[in-house]
Structures are given as structure tokens and as C-alpha cells.
Amino acid sequence: MLFNSLHFLVFFPVVLGLYFGLPQRWRAPLLLVASYYFYLSWKPLYGLLLAATTLLDYYSGVRMSRLATEAQRRPWLYLSLASNLGTLFIFKYFNFFREAAVELATALHLPLGVPTLALVLPVGVSFYTFQSVAYIVDVYKGRLAAEQHLGRFALFVAFWPQLVAGPIERGGQMLPQLRERHQFDYGRAASGLRLMAWGMFKKVVIADRLALLANPVFDHPHRFEGLPLLLAILAFTGQIYADFSGYTDLARGAARVLGYQLVLNFRQPYLATSVGDFWRRWHMSLSGWFRDYVYIPLGGSRRGAARTQLNVFLVFLLSGLWHGASWTFIVWGALHGTYLVLESLTAPGRTTLAQQLGLATRPLLLRALGMACTLALVAYAWIFFRANSLSDAFYIGTHVFQGWGRLPTAQLPGALAGLGRHFVAELLVAGGAVALLAASDYRAERGSVAVWLASWPAAGRWAGYLSLLLATLYFGIFGSSQFIYFQF
């Protein structure tokens, strides 16, 4: 079930009406049933895997809660980790590593007859697996009391707004909310609906329109060079942000209407002044997960400069692999790891250079340069994230710098073909929508957009809400377009 579908347009009001219409004791069971219905709408078989994961992690957590020492709890930790990560490996990574092993064996003239697994990746498995792993590790470390109520734990794992693409919640943040009694609150519901409307606008007006420009080029990159490649890179840079943050807004907004607060996942990432700053703003729940459950256990920054840089690089290599079993994602992660290592190593030199150029006394200019450089590096890395193969990615990454000596009159129509006959009008719509998103992010950087809107006269606020709704209905591209992060 997609958030931008008629199915969801019926599902959400029904769940909302039943939730606040039923007695308190039936509300959590209703949400659990709704969550499994939401998930089973993709493919019923997925629900068996989700239920099995939930039961094992629940039992492991309860067992660990009755044991006094980490040594006694460790077998249950290992059992849960083996189950969660093993499931993820089989469904997501087995065929990738099998193919790599077969290629290596062939190069060494060694026979290796390992069959391919004909498995479909369950929707959201990377997200709910990481959420469950965080819970189990926190219980093992004594940072979190194990949830004793099976239904409540099942709802924590399967809560439908964030089940398939996050944010990745922590037990310490979400489980207490599931124990609370929730009453309908008009202000909270209105805030949630506004967030959902903004998320839908970002998805169907911005992301899906930019996809029409990016897809023809990324799907056939060897037909282009220079400007069309640059336009496609910039289009995807905007598309993935509007798409993923749009989903997050829809998820957080829906949860807020029901009375639950999901963690913030994006904080104006394209206004970052360094790659490190970017990762403190982009997919924050995943970045925090890798920090707490991979980077710190590896030693963090406690074992010297060289080990710190190695840990950073390894974390981003794993982050790339988390996104997909493909060399393109691994290179994307490695690029960001390299960016961060070089950023750390060159920090003293860049500070000295800024002082010598007089930029230290011109903070606005220094910030603008930092934002421009960061956006360029991030956008270049998106090539590998979006490309269909490494060869396509390397072609785009090199040929974007070629062909600038002539007007690409023969290439642009092909690059803009996805926008249809009225591509100029579509480009203007896309440009206006992106400008609105940029203005919103700039406003959010200075303070809460909600507080700012509350300062408007009521007539102005409602005119803005109505304009957003009409723009979404008129300019939105409605269909079966999935959110990008559903594939992970």
C-alpha cells in the first residue's frame, strides 16, 4: 500500500475513525491489526517473516531480562543477531556475494556450483531488522528494560507509518508512547495533517516530476554528455530528497494524528556546510544507528587518529551495502567515507587557507562556499546511488565534464522527453516547486516553520493551505510510483 494511492486514502481515515472511536483497551490491538494489514497488502507471505522475527526477538528480550550478567545474556543476543542479520543476508545479500564468489572462482579456474536463490526482497526488511537489532542490543546492555507484553512489542516492530521505510525508531523512544493512553487532540491532528500534505506535495509534485527528467538520462546515459548529464544529476539530487523526506513527512504526520511522535529524520541536509554536517542532517535515524551500533563498538575515536578514520570509512562502506547489494551502492558509501576522511585530514589546512584568503572574517561567504562544495560532492556521489551499473556510473561521472564546447541541441530533447511535449512548462513547475522547497528549508533553518506559520493571520494561513492542496491536485503526478527507499 502506497501513501500516494487510493488504497491509503481509504485506509487512513478508517483506521483513524476506529482508533479514536474504540475504547482505550482496543486501540493498540486495532493498530497492530492495521499494521499487519498495511504490510500484508504488499505480499501476504512477507507477514510470516515479520511475525517470526517479532516472536524470536520478543522471546530473546524477555529471556535476557531475567538474567543478571551480560555473559548469561550473550547467547540470546547471538541468537537474535544471527536470526535478524542472517535473514537480511539471505534475502538481500546472498545472491550478490554468490555472484562475486563465482566470478572470483572463475578467474582462478576453480569450480564453484552455488545456486542462485529465487527470493524477492521483503519490503522494509532492512528497516525493521535494524530497529529490532537496536532493541535487542539495548536490552543486552541494560540500557532498556525488555518489553514484557507481546502485543505491544509486535506493534513496536510493525507500527505501520514507519514500517517500510523508517524512521528507524529506538525502543526507549517508542515503547513508552505505546503504553500511553491517547486522546484525540485537534491541534496535534491538524499539525500532523499539515505535515502529511507537505510530504505528499514533495512526493507527487517535486520528486515524481524530477524523476521524469532524471530517468531517461540515467537509463540511457551513453546517449548524453555535458549539460544533459548535469541536469539529470541535479534532478536526481532533488528527487531523492523530496521523495524520501516526503515519505518521512507522511509517516511522521500520520503517526502524529494518531498521537505518536516519530523521530526527526531530515534537517535541511542540502544546507549543510560540510559532508560531516550533511550526515548529521540526512537520514538521521540511520546515521545514529550506525554511530551507536557500529562506529562506537568498533572503537569510535578512542583508539587514535588512524583507527578513527578507518572506523569512519568502514561505517560508510557498510552504509552503502545496507542500501543495496550492488557495487554501485558500495562505491557510493566508499565515496562518502573518503569524503569524511579527507575532510578530517584537511581541516587544519582549510582553516589556515580561509584565514589567508580573508574568509574567516566573512562568515556568510564562507558558509556559502561550504554549502556549494558540499552539495557538489553529495550530488556527484548520487551518480553511483542512481546508476544502473558501475559502467554507467563511471560514464556519467566522467562525461558530465565533456561536451561543453557545443550546444547540446541534439541531446536535450531526448533528456527532456520524459516531460512530454510541454517540457518547458513542466520545467517551470519543477523549478517553482523546488524553489518552494528550498525556501521552506531556509525558513526551517532559521526557526520552526510551524511557529512561523502560526504568526500569520488566519486568512493567510488557510489561503496557503488551500494553495498547497490545489497545487498538489493540479500539478501532482499520481500513479503507481513507489518511494525510492521502499526498495531497501
TrEMBL record:
Give the family from UniProt: Belongs to the membrane-bound acyltransferase family.
Q: GO CC terms on record?
A: plasma membrane
Instruction: Tell me where on the tree of life, at the top rank, the source sits.
Output: Bacteria
Per UniProt, what is one Pfam family of this protein?
MBOAT
Species source reads Hymenobacter ginkgonis
- Name the UniProt key words of this record, in alphabetical order: Acyltransferase, Cell membrane, Membrane, Transferase, Transmembrane, Transmembrane helix
Instruction: State the taxonomy lineage.
Output: Bacteria, Pseudomonadati, Bacteroidota, Cytophagia, Cytophagales
> InterPro entries in the record, alphabetically?
Ac/AlaTfrase_AlgI/DltB, AlgI, MB_O-acyltransferase, MBOAT_fam
Task: Identify a single GO molecular function assigned to this protein.
Answer: acyltransferase activity
Protein name from the UniProt record? MBOAT family protein
Per UniProt, subcellular location reads as: Cell membrane
Please give, as recorded in its UniProt entry, the membrane topology of this protein.
Multi-pass membrane protein
Alphabetical GO biological process terms: alginic acid biosynthetic process
**Where do the TM regions start and end?**
6-22, 34-56, 76-95, 107-130, 312-335, 364-385, 462-486
